[in-house]
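Q: My labmate handed me this sequence with no annotations at all. I'd like to see what the chain might look like in three dimensions before we decide whether it's worth expressing. Could you predict it?
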Amino acid sequence: MGFFLETLLGGLMTGMLYSLVALGFVLIFKASGVFNFAQGAMVLFAALAMARFSEWIPGWLGMTPGVVTILLSIVVSILIMIVVAWLVERLALRHLVNQEPITLLMATLGIAYLLDGLGPMIFGSAVYSIDVGMPKDPLFILNNVFEGGVLVSQEDLYSALIAAVLVAALTLFFQKTKTGRALRAVADDHQAAQSIGIPLGRMWVIVWSVAGVVALVVGIIWGSKLGVQFSLSLVALKALPVVILGGLTSLPGAIIGGLIIGVGEKLSEVYLGPMIGGGIETWFAYGLALALLLVRPQGLFGEKIIDRV
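A: Here is what I predict for the chain of 309 residues:
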């Protein structure tokens, strides 16, 4: 039982990390109706900025690396992602208002390749580390219940807590604020939103900025665990099944979808993998997403679209 709980908790923590990446996809789609293929590239770009500025700022200011320099690095990285959002709107999206969804999709694909190239060119292409002070030592819990206790990663626990706070804040933002309601109106109909005075360009800058901040959080967490390298942009591929499972328009769905896939991957790999030769963890998420598409294309929590003719 102890081993099962350890595997279950490991899956839940991994699922929360998948969910963080999926949040970026859901944010852009929920607020603009665009499926953002550039989210993975944004994660890499933000992580590279954070890693390099955390190295450069102590030298520029003549300070010892610590909490102050980490906070300064985060602030500078957030400002950079806001600038990226402004450039995306100014140079690409404002020229594609009311265009077909496939046009906007291809635009985000171009933005992805651009960021994948610019990031290493500006910040370097080596493998960098990010240290924001999250404890990496394992934690043993339930020692009195199971012999040896249950092993839990403290870093994953902190990551799960950050993800939960982020989801709660974003949900309140979309549901309770005037800007959040305006973003949802833009997603429903660009022309109608403009006709009632909602500034489309400003809304897109806001939502891409928020998605950039989410990408920075993801980049810091994954960079702290795996190091900042080009493969970080591929983390987004793991989030695609999460988005399909939870629904493209649901923030809580992104979290629940990530938890389902994280737990399913771990349990299937541990208990079913030895029977069929292993490797389930690499394709489980995509198989589950495909099976769901056949019976509920909008995902578990997505909005069902009904066209009247």
